[in-house]
Design brief:
Blueprint: E1 4-11, E2 15-22, H1 26-35, E3 40-45, H2 49-60, E4 64-69, H3 72-81, E5 86-89, H4 98-108, E6 113-117, H5 122-130, E7 135-138, H6 143-152
Parallel strand pairs: 3-4, 3-5, 5-6, 6-7
Antiparallel strand pairs: 1-2
Length: about 150
């Protein structure tokens, strides 16, 4: 019987929700083996330490290796030095706006970008996509949906 992790996520403007994070279903191992899927190497630029920790643990259960960076400068430096398959990007960051980070990544590196942000207005999503983001997932979100969106890239 798979175990689960219960956590409270505090995202955006004091939005809190409780989510039970199931462990990786055993059938996924068989599907991955049949498809010869490689592990996905993802970068996360997110200033919320709790969110980073939760996503590292959860995505790791789905063969997604996540490297988290709290500052855009750290994330951009790591992306320049390492080969990542995808970037998960928050917009409300210290140092610079996430939209500027998205623009830099799309100009300099060949990698998909998924924006995860508490900015959920249609205009924010449209601007993010027009600046080159490949996907936009408003917070709060179910981590299973993030896994599906990562795998779809």
């Amino acid at each position: 019987m798979p175990s689960s992790l219960q956590t409270n996520l505090a995202i955006g403007a004091k939005t809190t929700f409780t989510h039970h994070l199931p462990s990786k279903p055993q059938f996924l191992d068989k599907i991955h083996a049949m498809n010869n899927e490689k592990s996905i190497k993802a970068a996360l630029i997110e200033d919320d330490a709790d969110m980073c920790e939760i996503l590292e643990e959860y995505l790791g259960g789905f063969d997604i290796s996540l490297s988290s960076f709290r500052l855009p400068s750290e994330g951009l430096a790591a992306i320049a030095k390492n080969k990542f398959d995808i970037l998960i990007l928050d917009l409300n960051l210290p140092q610079m706006d996430g939209l500027d980070v998205c623009r830099i990544v799309k100009e300099r590196f060949s990698m998909p970008v998924i924006i995860t942000s508490a900015r959920s207005a249609v205009s924010d999503r449209v601007i993010g996509l027009e600046l080159g983001a490949d996907d936009y997932l408003p917070k709060p979100f179910d981590p299973r949906e993030l896994v599906a969106r990562i795998r779809a890239r």
